[in-house]
Design brief:
By secondary structure, this protein is mainly α. The protein is built from 1 helix and no strands. The longest helix is centred in the middle third of the chain and has 38 residues.
Length: 40
C-alpha cells in the first residue's frame, strides 16, 4: 500500500507543485499587503 500511495503522491506533487508555488507567491503578496495595511 505504501508504495502505491507514494507513487500517487509523486504524481500529485509533480502536477501541482508549479500551481502551488504560484499560489504561495500570491499568498505572500497578500500577506505583505495585509501587514502593510495593519501598520498604518
Amino acid at each position: 500500500m505504501k508504495c502505491i500511495n507514494e507513487k500517487i503522491v509523486d504524481k500529485i506533487l509533480s502536477t501541482s507543485i508549479p500551481q502551488a508555488s504560484k499560489k504561495i507567491e500570491n499568498d505572500i503578496e497578500i500577506m505583505k499587503v495585509i501587514s502593510n495595511l495593519s501598520k498604518k
